[in-house]
TrEMBL record:
Top-rank taxon: Eukaryota
Keywords assigned: Membrane, Transmembrane, Transmembrane helix
UniProt protein name: DUF7642 domain-containing protein
Domain DUF7642 span(s) in chain numbering: 88-187
Pfam families xref list: DUF7642
Residues that span the membrane, as ranges: 56-79
Length: 232
């Protein structure tokens, strides 16, 4: 998490960027044709470890409840179905970054048997993002998993809220850097549209922003600029 890897150039030919991203991600036909996916995250590499991690947590809680009230017996019987739903969940996950927002989609069976299918879709505007956090607990470190969190400004809320929280993303550090680079552009574009006299930052400011992009974590703030965030 402490490494400062370089941000891949958007549009360059790399396995992290899609050559024909819109068609590969099956973006809805009703979506704007001008939308271009710049980066797509992957969950396949850590799918089995993610399921194992969740199984250990569920199994441990079940054993404690068996000793306490006996409810854990039903939780143990439910475990195979929970693993099945989690596999479907991970297989259906789509997380990608466009020039305007982060999009996260899930389509899986309900955790309640015979309740049909559950669909979740989240859109996080890049111009409202103020913090990107990558967390790793003790047990997560054993399986090489991280929790990727995106905090943004919410209307009517006094403090930032978690707009997106997802576990099991491959290469979360690279995803963070791509989001930081695109959020910087989105914030500048929003400033220009709000203030016609907005001027592009000088060379010194641009260099400082690029150096922050290569840091371990970044706090994005439309009002206060860029600050180094030491969360890990």
């Amino acid at each position: 998490m402490g490494r400062a890897d370089s941000v891949p150039k958007l549009g360059s030919k790399t396995n992290l960027l899609l050559s024909d991203p819109v068609s590969e991600l099956d973006v809805d036909e009703e979506a704007d044709d001008s939308i271009q996916v710049l980066y797509t995250a992957s969950f396949e590499e850590l799918a089995s470890k993610n399921v194992q991690y969740d199984t250990i947590i569920w199994f441990s809680i079940s054993l404690l409840l068996v000793l306490a009230w006996g409810v854990g017996i039903f939780m143990l019987l439910y475990l195979p179905f929970r693993r099945y739903v989690l596999w479907k969940d991970i297989a259906s996950r789509k997380l990608y970054v466009t020039s305007k927002e982060i999009v996260y989609k899930i389509s899986r069976p309900s955790y309640i048997p015979f309740w049909g299918e559950t669909r979740i879709e989240k859109h996080v505007p890049l111009s409202l993002i103020i913090d990107i956090i990558i967390e790793q607990g003790c047990l997560q470190s054993v399986y090489g998993l991280h929790t990727f969190r995106v905090e943004s400004i919410a209307h009517g809320k006094a403090s930032p809220v978690d707009e997106l929280r997802v576990q099991g993303v491959s290469n979360p550090g690279i995803l963070r850097k791509v989001v930081v680079a695109q959020a910087s552009k989105a914030i500048q574009d929003a400033s220009r549209s709000w203030n016609p006299n907005f001027q592009t930052p000088g060379v010194e400011n641009i260099s400082r922003m690029e150096s922050l992009t290569l840091g371990p974590a970044v706090l994005l703030s439309p009002s206060k600029g860029w600050k180094v965030n030491s969360k890990s």
